[in-house]
Specification:
about 110 residues, alpha+beta, Glutaredoxin, 4-stranded mixed β-sheet, 5 helices, about 15% strand, globular, Thioredoxin-like_sf, disulfide oxidoreductase activity, 2 iron, 2 sulfur cluster binding, 2Fe-2S, Monothiol_GRX
């Protein structure tokens, strides 16, 4: 499977996914750490992909949605953005409702 197809599969199969350096439990950069913490504060489950564990994803993810930096957060197949955008959403109190809506939409489509 082509790397862009693998990325697409992760984005499509997970209602909320963060492509980050490390894991939410063991982040490997400050931006990934702060973003994952903000997402965890919502109490909504989300998937993650450690881009450091897969050099192909690390090299090609910036091409996938034309977004040059890590982390990258997707909800319901759409790029939300990176650290700055997610932190702004978190500070405005908008991140948790967005994540809840993405999770609820996924649950509806499963039933």
């Amino acid at each position: 499977m082509d790397v862009l197809e693998r990325i697409g599969k992760q984005v499509e199969e997970n209602p909320i996914v963060i492509f980050m350096k490390g894991s939410p439990q063991m982040p490997m950069c400050g931006f990934s750490s702060r973003t994952a913490q903000a997402m965890q504060a919502s109490g909504v489950n989300f998937a993650y992909v450690n881009v450091l564990a897969d050099p192909e994803i690390f090299e090609n993810l910036p091409r996938y949605a034309n977004w040059p930096t890590f982390p990258q957060i997707y909800m319901n197949g759409e790029l939300v953005g990176g650290h700055d955008i997610v932190m702004e959403l978190y500070q405005k109190g908008e991140l948790k409702p967005m994540m809840e809506a993405a999770a609820a939409k996924a649950e509806q489509s499963e039933s």
